[in-house]
TrEMBL record:
A GO biological-process term: transsulfuration
Pfam families reported in the protein's UniProt record: Cys_Met_Meta_PP
One cellular component term from this protein's GO annotations in UniProt: cytoplasm
UniProt name for this protein: L-methionine gamma-lyase
Record-stated family: Belongs to the trans-sulfuration enzymes family. L-methionine gamma-lyase subfamily.
Enzyme Commission code(s) on record: 4.4.1.11, 4.4.1.2
NCBIfam families: met_gam_lyase
Top class in the EC scheme: lyase
Cofactor list: pyridoxal 5'-phosphate
Keyword GTP-binding assigned: no
Signal peptide: none
Organism: Planococcus massiliensis
Residues where N6-(pyridoxal phosphate)lysine is found: 202
Length: 395
């Protein structure tokens, strides 16, 4: 992987010996002759036609992603949600049922609700910890399993081995949103998944300056089919410039991930010693109830930590406001350490009772640990704890 993210899919000889992959910022491609155009449209000759159908810069990124997620093909989209919607449109038709893991990304849930209302494609959410539970939730019309693991923001783990066993037994497709782990920590296709998708906005790009999505598929022919149907006709493609930026970011994925993880573990150790911290959620924390499953399917614990402090929303907001180096923002996987408050931000649309059942309390915060020096991060956090301590003592 370390080599593929730097070299795969690019040869400088056909690009004027340019070491860096060039940016083909063009909407269309001209044909030498009318006959040449005809044969490209007929699919008899390889070659570029129009950037919605493929672009040389975007293709370099697609080839790299297919390689590092162990698929035969990949497609780049204008956002993570464009990748999610493309695969759900491709994998379902009216009357079908999709079985999902609990706590899927809010907009994915919104899309599924819309598909249910408009197209009669139904869904259910289950925690997916055992084969029995998954099997029990299947319906005759279930066609695919759609999941995320770890689950945002409580870091619950979906048991991938159990999912794959049930899917195999019942002939179901498995789609995994692998955004939280990145290809560095978890490769669902190797475990039996059919499709893996990413919000490239997060760890893949890693620099907080692009919105993008990637879909990787086990079957190359099917991916070409998606390219020439859903992607071409719905049109949520990635721009060449965004692909160029992600190619640049992706080159350091492994280096960044190592540091995100190392930093997260130091921050975790600090949080565990802090008396105002009530609960901590991190997949490789020994206190995590599913740490064994996490260790069986992930190379390491990643860069995200959620934690709950004493008090409620007021205290959580005071804590966040007292931070200065750590930025208050949604998104994750950037060089900057980011903190967000799920109950009032990413999960504000989830009804409160459901939120509480998921463990999203009013004082829960999610930290995306960045690449700064951990001494500085810990100093910033310690200062914020000092700020809320007197408020809690008053109460
Ligand atoms: C951010 C995110 C998405 C959506 O991606 P966008 O690039 O914002 O469209 C989907 N799934 C997960 C797990 C995410 O974190």
């Amino acid at each position: 992987m370390e080599t593929a993210v730097i070299h795969k899919g690019y040869g400088s000889a056909v690009h004027h010996d340019s070491l860096a992959a060039p940016l083909y910022q063009t909407s269309t491609f001209s044909f030498e002759t009318a006959e040449e155009g005809e044969s490209r449209f007929a699919g008899e000759k390889a070659g570029n036609i129009y950037s919605r159908l493929g672009n040389p810069t975007v293709r370099i990124l697609e080839e790299r992603m297919a390689e590092i997620e162990y698929g035969e093909g990949a497609l780049a989209f204008g956002s993570g949600m464009a990748a999610v919607s493309a695969i759900l449109i491709h994998a379902t038709k009216a009357g079908d049922h999709v079985l999902c893991s609990r706590g899927i990304y809010g907009c994915t849930f919104g899309l599924l609700e819309m598909m249910e209302e408009k197209y009669k494609i139904t869904h259910d959410l289950v925690s997916m910890t055992t084969e029995e539970e998954i099997e029990g939730a299947l319906r005759p019309e279930t066609v695919c399993i759609y999941l995320e693991t770890p689950i945002n923001p409580t870091m619950e783990i979906v048991n991938l081995e159990a999912v794959m066993a049930v899917a195999k037994k019942h002939g179901l497709r498995v789609i995994v949103d692998n955004t939280f782990s990145s290809p560095y920590l978890q490769n669902p296709i190797l475990m039996g998944a059919d499709f893996v998708l990413h919000s490239a906005t997060k760890y893949l790009n890693g620099h907080g300056d692009v919105i993008g999505g990637i879909l990787v598929g086990k079957d190359g022919e099917e991916m070409q089919n998606i390219r020439m149907t859903v992607q071409k006709d719905v049109g949520g493609i990635m721009s060449p410039f965004d692909a160029w930026l992600i190619i640049r970011g992706l080159k350091t994925l492994h280096v960044r991930m190592d540091r995100h993880i190392a930093n997260a573990k130091k921050v975790l150790a600090f949080l565990k010693e802090e008396p105002l911290v009530k609960k901590i959620y991190y997949p490789f924390d020994d206190a995590h109830p599913q740490v064994e499953i996490a260790k069986a399917q992930m190379k390491d614990g990643g860069g995200l930590i959620s934690f709950e402090i004493e008090g409620g929303k007021k205290e959580a907001q005071a804590f966040m406001n007292a931070l200065s180096l750590i930025k208050i923002a949604v998104s994750l996987g950037d060089a900057e350490t980011l903190i967000q408050h799920p109950a009032s931000m990413t999960h504000a649309v989830v009804p409160q009772t459901e939120r509480e059942a998921m463990g999203i309390t009013e004082s829960l915060m999610r930290l995306s640990v960045g690449l700064e020096h951990t001494d500085d991060l810990i100093e910033d956090l310690a200062k914020a704890f000092e700020t809320v301590k007197p408020k809690l003592q008053e109460a």
